[in-house]
């Protein structure tokens, strides 16, 4: 089982340190900045062997070059993003497996937020690192891809087990939940989850990771194919991709 340490940085980003206790390898997922990562490594006596990037945005790769210069680590990223991920060494794509110490991740291409966006699924550790594709009760904005592409990407993540832990890259949960409640005011699971989320944030604690099962029940974007959600937005006869597209538009204006 991998050890996972969450580092909050900037205004709402999460960086994840993952450590394989058997091989002693350590990776960092989406290092927005380098200093807090170096400090967390030093505190634990961990040696950085890999950087895993989900996509090329600055708040996900900002620490790449400094960390590589300081530790000699290997940078892993999407084949499709090899021209725009700083310092990239190893390129991966759909269905590839990435060996990390004694652990293994399956790569899932999830275009939509950006065209080269990928997610890392460590099945044995129930850990999904999905960057800015799936958020707690939300999803990323469509900067490069279409709604159709993003819906297809979310369906791939939705197919993972319910106990998958969703390690997304931003603490957007409370704002996402407020939108979700406007969409589905009668969703009891959503109402209950928001009470917990609001209380956690009041205490300054993270609401991430969540579980895939929680997202199935409360994330409006993942629920674009559910009759209850379609009814709630008055789109019973439309395709899930159409419903998703409309939800994304509404959220952009929310
Ligand atoms: Zn992004
Ligand atoms: Fe981001």
CATH class: Alpha Beta
Q: How much is the radius of gyration in Å?
A: 18 Å
Strand content: 25-35%
- CATH fold type: Metallo-beta-lactamase, Chain A
Total number of beta strands: 14
Structure characteristics:
9 helices; six-stranded mixed β-sheet; about 250 residues; single chain; alpha/beta; binds fe (iii) ion; Metallo-beta-lactamase, Chain A; binds zinc ion
Protein model, in words:
There is one protein chain. The chain has helices spanning 35-44, 58-61, 64-71, 147-158, 173-183, 188-202, 212-218, 227-232, 240-253, and strands at 3-9, 13-19, 25-29, 47-52, 74-78, 90-92, 97-100, 103-109, 118-122, 127-131, 134-135, 138-139, 165-168, 210-211. With 254 residues, it is α/β, with parallel strands linked by helices. It has one domain (3-253): Metallo-beta-lactamase, Chain A (4-Layer Sandwich), CATH 3.60.15.10. Strands 1-2-3-4-5-6 form a 6-stranded mixed beta sheet, covered by helices on one side. The protein has a 6-stranded mixed beta sheet with strand order 7-8-9-10-13-14. A two-stranded antiparallel sheet has the order 11-12. Helix 1 (35-44) links the parallel strand 3 and strand 4. It is globular. It starts with a strand and ends with a helix. The model has no long low-confidence stretch (mean pLDDT 98). The structure holds zinc ion and fe (iii) ion (FE).
